[in-house]
Every structure is written in C-alpha cells, then in structure tokens.
C-alpha cells in the first residue's frame, strides 16, 4: 500500500478532513480545515469527495517522500513554494509522486495555510465519525497530534492514474483579506457606540501567538460598557470575543465549545478562509454587513463555487489531443 513518509514538518501540520460535526453538545468541537474552501478545492482537483482527509500545512512547511508506490496529490491554498526533487511547481497543482520522490512545501508569497490532498485520502482511524485532528484534545488524525519527522501516513485506495504536474486553475482562491466582513455579535450591546466604531476603524494585525484555536488581534484596545464577563454560552467559528484586556480574539477551527466573554461580532462564513490566510503582522479591517447581506453572500458564493469547483478536474487537465477529442465542443473554446 502506498504511503507518505514525513521528513520534516513545521509546527501545526496536521491531518484534517471536513470536521467532526454533531458533537458540540458533548463538548467536542469540529476541528477541520482553517480554510474550508482551499481544502475542498484540493480534494475536488483530484475528482474525489471534497471531505477526504488531507494534510493541512502551516507556515512551517513540510517535506515528505512517497513510499511503496506512486502517490497522486493536489495542493491548494496560500501561495506557498512547492517543489518536487528540487524542481519548482505552481503553488496550486496536481501531480504524481513516484516512489522515493521528495515533495517540499514551504511558506511563499502569501497565505498562512495550504492543503495537500491525496487520491484515496489519508487513511487514519475515524474518531466520532471524523479523521480531523484536534491537538488540544489529542483526538483524531495521526495519533491525535501534529505531524513530525518519521511519521508514515497510509493512503486509501483510489484507482487514480498517474499524472504530470498541472496547475489548478482557480484564481478565485486568491482572496485579498484587507476587509473581513462580519455581522454584529450577540453581545454587541456590551460596547458603547464609540467602541463599536473603533472596532470597525481598526486597523488590526494578527498576533504571532495565533493558532488553530484562535486569532489574537493587536490594535485598538476596546473597553466594555457592561463588564467583560457573561454566562458562558456556545461559540462558533468566527466568533469575535473581547476579554477583559480589550484585545479581540477570533475563534477558529479548534475553538472551545463555550465562552464567557462578550462577542462583539461574528465573521461571515465566506470570509472565514480569508481571515485564516492572513499572516501575522498583516493589517486588515472589519466591515459590517447585515444578516440579510451575509445570507445573500453565502448563497451567491455557494452557487458560484459549486459550479467552479466542479470544473476544476477539467480545467487542470493538460490540453492533449486525447483530452480534446473526449470533449463535446460545438463552436466553443476551452478557456480558464
């Protein structure tokens, strides 16, 4: 059976699938990808289920080797530096690693996370219906922890043939994050109008201590009008808490199930991945939208992405004569 052997892995590289849903009432959060769109694109580029387990690569990068058999992979997400046996490749690409070939992924021009999907998926045990890693809970993934040198990941059966490196045509993955859209949170009334204005004026930068649990923000110090403690209630990915020190925290994939700080805002679903891809030190601002606007954006993006993601396997295929003869083209063209 084919496998991938980890040679080096930076902090925070883990196995993730779409997440462990349906267990929040038991205190188990979903984990899953920091950038759900990029994760789905990597899997769809292989023509497989968008939820198959993949490797989430952090800014620390990863180096791995195919063992026992060829392994077909797809990479998507931030603009990372990708190479195979020292040969540079596009940041978003599909390729087949021959046995004993080395793939290197390093931080590149932009972005904080990228996804290495594998034809057949990463074959680790499913815990509570998911292979996603939650390192703080020691749950799922490879032994419940981040990947490290010497780990060997089994690959599921796929039946996919070998392929030459081909760029994934998905320019809409390039989503500038100067403005992150939010709706006002359930405890926005804990803040006076001038503090709400300061929240939207910013600017904010992501602290280096941010991780998969939360993004810690540096910028204006917010003050509370009604105190900084509430009765703990449920939190979602994208909830923006403001603790007693006045520095907002954006809860992310490995967030806790409940929180006792006022939530001034919530990042809308389509912008979660954009926020996740912000690098520490990069400035950005929050922009308010209504619930109705957020729902409309969600519907529009879901419809657009369902069309474009389904086209990825075709778009990334090289335009060989065999490929073109297999298409039904009538007075049309193939274009990206």
Automatic annotation (TrEMBL):
Name of the protein: Biotin-dependent carboxyltransferase
InterPro entries: CT_A_B, Cyclophilin-like_dom_sf, PxpC
GO molecular function, one term: ATP binding
Alphabetized Pfam families for the sequence: CT_A_B
Originating species: Hansschlegelia quercus
Key words, A-Z: ATP-binding, Hydrolase, Nucleotide-binding, Transferase
Ranges where the Carboxyltransferase domain occurs: 25-304
